[in-house]
Design brief:
This protein is mostly helical. It has two domains: 181 residues, MFS general substrate transporter like domains (Growth Hormone, Chain: A, Up-down Bundle), CATH 1.20.1250; 192 residues, MFS general substrate transporter like domains (Growth Hormone, Chain: A), CATH 1.20.1250. Helices cover 77% and strands 0% of the residues.
Length: 421
């Protein structure tokens, strides 16, 4: 097998960046899979923590721990983007993966809920930075015109990590205890970190027209770029769309089974519907990227949010047998992919020197939606109107996501924005 770093060197690049580009997709996918493992592991271990008489956890305290982790992810997403734009993608990815892995390992020796919550917050700082850097890299080093599918395929790593967490939890927790879930979540970094350090390219590849002189993109402040040179309206639109997208993802994953139970479905059926929802998410990721590559990221994102609106509203209608599973599957196809298409659109809308910062801002502000989604579902359940009005509420959120994408300036849709002069 040809060594990718050798082919890069043969191409005349001193850093081997062209050859290393072949490593970007699999290594970034692996990092996102670790993120998926780590962000879902709390839900897997919470039942054991709630049963531990020493910790004395109750649902309210457990919610605070979950919120602490999400707040850490939000701060990390907002902070790491500028670091990646200034110091380089490879360094930023290494920092995030190593930091959240070390802090995840530390969670295994937490002595109480407050120490555990603090460690989850600190681990979240690194976790929040993985996705913006990974999306920036796969778009910068992927094939031209494949920004949609590059991003959606990357995001299948998240679901792979989430599934691995669930499967390991079934075996590991009864046999060895919940602490070992955090040990297993940290160990892959022992292999991944050296690979990231050796094979990830550090520079953004720039293809300049013949005879043109490349201008150093990093000469401009990446944060300021989000609000200057006409980008402010688009930035606000992306932030709103991301907020709505993550509100849907976290709200439905948290409360769909309970809402379905209120609707009269049995516990087994409700849990099966949650599984079907996430199967739809994977199918949607694979389809959405190809559609976006053909018709453009802007129309694809609008269409996906609009379709999510329709199928979420249809879930408010009680359907027998196969019909409800088909409805949930189609809702999953469009709900989860809508947010990923927003990320892909962000990555192609801004100049290279601000790309990671733009993705970090969209992801970080979107985390407020991730916190709001479970709260919205909880309020509707507490008020006794979760069914059918919960689905109408989520459908309204999806509609607002579509409207927000419509607010993005069309000038740069689906293609890298030119460097500002």
């Amino acid at each position: 097998m040809t060594d990718p770093t050798r082919s890069g060197a043969a191409a005349g690049d001193a850093t081997g960046t062209p050859g290393r580009s072949g490593w970007v997709a699999p290594l970034c996918w692996s990092a996102v899979a670790l993120e998926g493992f780590d962000l879902v592991v709390l839900g897997v271990v919470l039942p054991s923590l709630l049963d531990d008489p020493v910790w004395g956890l109750n649902p309210a305290t457990a919610s605070l721990i979950s919120t602490a982790g999400l707040l850490g992810v939000m701060v990390g997403a907002l902070s790491v983007g500028p670091v990646a734009d200034r110091l380089g993608r490879r360094k930023a990815m290494l920092i995030t993966v190593v930091s959240f892995s070390v802090l995840t390992l530390a969670c295994a020796v937490a002595t109480g809920p407050w120490m555990f919550a603090a460690l989850r917050f600190l681990a979240g700082l690194g976790l929040g930075g993985v996705l913006p850097v990974a999306i920036a890299m796969v778009n910068e080093h992927g094939r031209p015109g494949r920004g949609g599918s590059s991003t959606t395929i990357l995001m299948t790593g998240y679901h792979a990590g989430a599934v691995a967490t669930s499967l390991l939890g079934i075996w590991v927790i009864p046999a060895f205890g919940w602490q070992w879930m955090f040990v297993l979540g940290a160990l892959p970094a022992l292999v991944l970190a050296p690979l990231l350090s050796r094979y990830l390219p550090d520079d953004v590849p720039v293809v300049a027209p013949a005879g043109a002189t490349a201008r150093p993109a990093a000469s401009r402040n990446p944060i300021a770029q989000l609000v200057r040179d006409g980008y402010l309206p688009s930035s606000i639109a992306f932030w709103i769309a991301s907020f709505m997208g993550l509100l849907l993802v976290y709200g439905l994953n948290t409360w769909l089974p309970q809402i379905m139970r209120v609707a009269g479905y049995g516990l087994g059926a409700a849990l099966s519907q949650l599984l079907v929802l996430n199967v739809g998410a994977v199918l949607g990721l694979l389809v959405a990227g190809r559609v976006a590559d053909r018709i453009g990221l802007r129309p694809a994102a609008i269409a996906w949010f609009a379709a999510a609106t329709v199928f979420l509203a249809l879930l408010a209608v009680r359907m027998p047998g196969f019909g409800i599973y088909l409805g949930v599957l189609l809702a999953g196809v469009f709900v989860f992919s809508s947010q990923v298409l927003v990320y892909a659109y962000v990555s192609r809308h801004y100049p290279a020197h601000a790309r990671a910062s733009a993705l970090g801002a969209a992801s970080g502000i979107g985390r407020l939606g991730a916190i709001s989604g479970p709260l919205l579902g909880g309020l509707l359940l507490q008020a006794g109107i979760a069914y059918p009005w919960g689905f109408f509420a989520f459908a309204g959120v999806a509609a607002l996501g579509a409207v927000a994408v419509l607010g993005v300036r069309r000038a740069d849709a689906g293609a890298p924005a030119p460097e500002p002069r």
